[in-house]
Every structure is written in structure tokens, then in C-alpha cells.
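Pipeline run #58 for the internal structure catalog. This entry was flagged by the ingest filter as a single-chain record with no existing model, so it goes straight to prediction. Upstream metadata was stripped on purpose; only the residue string is passed forward. Reviewer on rotation: M.T. Logging verbosity set to normal.
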Amino acid sequence: MEILVNGQKSEILEIQVLEMRTRIPGKEHPDTLTSRNNLAFTYQNLGKQAEVDQLEIQVLEMKARALEL
């Protein structure tokens, strides 16, 4: 139970960080992509696979654009 509560708290914090980084350095900035990956990892720990898949696809698409692939 404690792990779930901590995971949910982590989720809230990760979402807040991602929202701030999306506004300030920009949605495709490397730090923002790292935050997106961190949130995906938190979702994975919480068993939210659909959210993990969505975030991972977003990160891959943004990295491909950054590398002009």
C-alpha cells in the first residue's frame, strides 16, 4: 500500500515537472524529453501501460525530429 501511495505521489510530481519543462525550455528540449521518460517510468511502476506506450511514442517521435530522421 505504501509503495502505491508513493508511486501516486511520484506521478503527481512528475506531471508537474513535465508541465513546467514543457512551458519553459520547450516540449522538445532534451530536459523535457527526460522528464517525459521519467513519467513513463513512473507509469510503468504503477501498471499504467497505455500511458507508458503513449509517452514513449511521443519521445521517439520528438527525438527523430530533433535528429531529422
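catalog note: DSSP finds three helices and no strands in the chain.
catalog note: Residues 2-23 form the longest helix (22 residues).
status: ready for reviewer M.T.
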